[in-house]
Amino acid sequence: MPVEKIRRLARWSGYTATLLKLGLRDPKGTFLSTKNARKLVGAYSRGGASEVARLIRATRSMPVMETGPRTVSLAEEYALAVSTRARKKDGIDLEFVSKAAERIAVERAPVKAIAFYLPQFHPIPENDAWWGEGFTEWTNVTKAAPQYLGHHQPQLPIDVGFYDLRLVETMEKQARLADWYGIGGFCFHYYWFGGKRLLERPIDQYLASKTIKLPFCFCWANENWTRRWDGQENEVLISQKYSPEDDIAFIEALFPAFSDPRYIRHDGKPMLIVYRVSQLPDPKATANRWRQRCREAGIGEIYLIAARSFEITDPRPYGFDAAIEFPPHQIPASNITKQIALVNPYFRGNIYSYEDLADGYASQRTADYPLIKTVSPGWDNEARRPGAGHIFHGSSPSAYASWFKRSVAYAVEQTAADTNYPPFVFINAWNEWAEGAHLEPDRRYGYAYLHATGNILRDLYVASEEVSERVKASSDRFEKKNDTLVIVHVHYEELIGEIVDTLSRLRGVDVTISAGRAVSEKSIRYLLDNLPGVRIELFDNRGRDLAPFLDQLAFAREQGYRYACKVHTKKSPQRNDGEALRRHAFDELIGSQAIFAKNRKRFEDDPTLGMLAPSGSVLSLAHPPRHVLNRRWLDYLFQQLDIGELAESYDCDFVAGSMFWFRVDALKRVAELKLLPEMFEYEVGQVDGTLAHAVERVLAAAAAKSSFRTEEL
């Protein structure tokens, strides 16, 4: 790999003082060798700065890098990287996911997602006295600092921003955002201390609001408040005061909420979670008092849920109906502190594996009592315990999506087996910013966690009997009538009319359409009624348009088609020109019968033509931004396609946008790839770096390996 290519990559990466930047020297004073530079590039693409640091520490030939006479430490490099990120605008990083262009509707999902909500983002007199004038949760959040290479701190909000929950407009916006991504409600932490409430203002104004429609419920956070954050855990700031009289006073205080039509219920019963049931002097007696008082007041039965936070497992001995997981409590995870390249030599905390935590919770099952699953986007309370936090390293939108998917699958399984099982999965949390556990968008990942949540819930849809029967019939009755096939993938249903208008003008072509399982009955009927003979297949929303395309490609080969055209309802919401790109591709590929016939004839006239792409869409993969995030998958696919030599140079072209004509035989190698559906990443709004992106980038190279050319229109 030429050194100049390394330098271009270094400039593109955005790290002005990255270990790969132009001018770095080894201890002998020579420029970084091509061999070592290649190693560092590979390490950076695999795991970012932390993987680079690990490689440097493990390789004696590269213990220190120098710029002129001055040695640059790893800590300095990372500090400069963090400052570089701070100067960037939101959305610059490729990990950043923009807000979804349309609401993700999940009303038909059999399980609802409820997010725990912390109401501490506003000042109160008690916190002023205990922590200083003007203290809110943001006070902790903004002072967090990274403790190791790759540590995602500070975690800073976008969209609603550094909000003040005294403003009801803030909560209205939060509720709209949650609903936009399919969140079924908030579970507010409720603070009650022997008749005294704290942080009550946001909850009271939420109840009073006539414009907020999002459902809600409560979790009584029945712990003493102490100075745990600053290490003085034994100093109690305000304590719980339990008594039979307080039991009655507490439950009566909840009556207005229980009577609110927005309050979340199971089987008609208002749900109440208690964080530490074992702290109650006589939990069963308390539960009985609550139930009796609710019956007397006309509330009816209530559904009591014990959080599995510390000692609790089975809720029944305590008189409760169900248990709920509360990560990261109770599930042991590997302590990986010694494996991490710390930049703070005085760090006294612990770093654990997020992967272990997620797998432990997702694998947890019970057959004796209802256990409500809970997932967490991450956990990192460094903001509250500077230099001594408990951090679960390795969290990401994709890792969270996998955990969430397994948890909702368990909930669906349980509700199918037992109609009394609560149809909920909880998320810890909506806005625990000081614990690194938030669905709310931040500067690094944007809306990725929300995107993952909504898409997985949408994938839970079970098609109606009518849709299932009509889709199956379209496949069973399909007859090949022509030698040319148009392969369409529908993600954005609002573009179906545009698809139908275009396809209905074409003659001498068969049509097969793939769509997500959440597609509406209205859309299915419209497609079948307006495209006679069309074949429709439903897929999970995973792998974008490329995973379904592999299935459709196999179908095209089985049926003996000679030519095909692949199109999809492309929007590219992260780009301002997404709509124009789609219309341009449609117009040039299948815009009219004359265009369709002309493009098809080019394949008949030129037996070496393998792919035909819209003008301006054939790009070089050698440009680093187009391959650096996809190296792992690209290298794998190149090996599978018997073109492993491209793994070093990426010196080939690809069709950006994945809309093109192709000769079916030209993609024979691609059709024979053994790519299982579960190999494709969960949809979290990624703009690059997934298996689907890599498949897009190898198609033209695979055709070239089979001696076919790719041309632009």
Task: Please supply descriptive tags for the structure shown above.
single chain, 713 residues, alpha/beta, Spore Coat Polysaccharide Biosynthesis Protein SpsA, Chain A, eight-stranded parallel beta barrel, 25 strands, 36% helix, 17% strand
Give a structural overview.
The protein has 713 residues and is an alpha/beta fold. The protein has three domains: 3-87, no CATH class; 112-458, Glycosidases (TIM Barrel, Alpha-Beta Barrel), CATH 3.20.20.80; 465-712, Spore Coat Polysaccharide Biosynthesis Protein SpsA, Chain A, CATH 3.90.550. The chain is 36% helix and 17% strand. The strands form six sheets. Strands 3-4-6-10-11-12-14-16 form an eight-stranded parallel β-barrel, surrounded by four helices. A seven-stranded mixed β-sheet has the order 19-18-17-20-24-21-25, with helices on both faces. It has a two-stranded antiparallel sheet with strand order 1-2. α11 (354-363) runs parallel beside α12 (397-417) and α14 (465-476) packs parallel to α16.
Task: Give the helix/strand layout.
Layout: H1 3-13, H2 34-58, E1 65-67, E2 70-72, H3 74-87, E3 112-117, H4 125-131, H5 137-141, H6 168-180, E4 183-193, E5 196-198, H7 201-208, E6 216-220, E7 225-227, E8 232-238, H8 244-253, H9 255-258, E9 265-266, E10 269-274, H10 283-296, E11 303-308, E12 322-325, E13 350-353, H11 354-363, E14 371-375, E15 390-393, H12 397-417, E16 424-427, H13 448-458, H14 465-476, E17 484-490, H15 496-503, E18 510-516, H16 521-530, E19 535-539, H17 546-559, E20 563-568, H18 578-590, H19 593-605, E21 609-613, E22 618-620, H20 631-640, H21 646-649, E23 653-655, E24 660-663, H22 668-671, H23 691-705, E25 709-712
Parallel strand pairs: 3-4, 3-16, 4-6, 6-10, 10-11, 11-12, 12-14, 13-15, 14-16, 17-18, 17-20, 18-19, 21-25
Antiparallel strand pairs: 1-2, 4-5, 7-8, 9-10, 20-24, 21-24, 22-23
